[in-house]
Amino acid sequence: MSDVTPAGQPDLASIVSGIERTNELLQRVLAEVATTPSTHAIFVDAGYVYAAAGRLVAGTEDRRAFELDAEGLIEAFIDKARTIFPDSRLLRVYWYDGARRRIHTSEQQGIAELPDVKVRLGNLNANNQQKGVDSLIRTDLESLARHRAIGDAALIGGDEDLVSAVESAQGYGARVHLWGIEAVEGRNQAEPLLWEVDSQRTFDLDFCKPYVTRRPMGFEPYGAGDPVPGGPAPSRDDVRFVGAQIAARWLSSRGRESLAELLPGHPYLPGSVDQELLIDAEALLRLSLRTHADLRRALRDGFWEHLQAQY
């Protein structure tokens, strides 16, 4: 049967059938989009974070003068993103830093071993200035946006050179959210960068303070796993046991409702809970864990293992 009437007009039945097929196709596409989870990633310019957080909390940008709990801060960023993008899953955290000849320091190795964290290294010149970090950020932002791997990007930095990275990602449909650290005076983020992004957020002193500790004059930091003055560092099993002890107390005081709220975030702890765990553990161990990334992980492992066993 012909789809055209003798008068040369399309047959009404064929038009209706075509509309129905189109509607069915649209419904399938919409259903697929609805079931596809949105995804976000966090891009951290470590040079900016060290300088801004050190200046705000310790009064200096010299990394040698303070310790930064990078692992704790990264988890705090992840926790914050979870509240801002509640219907989105984390792809990963990108941590951009500089190193001589792009060879990881022990601290950078510890960060690279964290779950869902990717360390990207630029070079350090003779003046300890980062080189090539902005281009790394642009490459990752543009690539992920172009392949629709992310819908939202949280960018933590302040350099005007990042404007091109923002523009590239936005050109492929991604939204870029600029996160910064409170400046002691004036601004620590370039105005053109502030103008270009889709939203802005600033972390204040109270947010940053738990993750920055000023070193005493003449203090040389110990690397993860190094012996502690006055005696050997505890084993990972000992620290894991302490984590389980603290978890038992936490569960006793907070109750199972709080546990049910905590479990979906595994393996990450909310910033407030993580800091409480760290402080309690250091008091029990009589040892600072700020420079012992491996022991902090063991502590969290013990905490989680106990809680999951009780659920």
Provide an overview of this structure:
Residues 218-231 have low confidence and may be disordered. With 311 residues, the chain is an alpha/beta fold. The protein contains twelve helices and nine strands. Helix 6 (163-171) links the parallel strand 6 (152-156) and strand 7. It is globular and about 85 Å long. The strands form two sheets. Strands 5-4-3-1-6-7-8 form a seven-stranded mixed β-sheet, with helices on both faces.
Element-by-element helix/strand order: HEHEHEHEEHEHEHEHEHHHH
Q: Helix count, per DSSP?
A: 12
The biggest sheet amounts to:
7 strands, mixed
Low-confidence stretches: 218-231
Helix content: 40-55%
Alpha-beta classification:
alpha/beta
For the largest beta sheet, what order do the strands appear in spatially?
Answer: 5-4-3-1-6-7-8
* Beta content: 15-25%
- How far apart are the first and last residues' alpha carbons, in Å? 66 Å
Averaged pLDDT? 82
| Global shape | globular
Radius of gyration: 25 Å
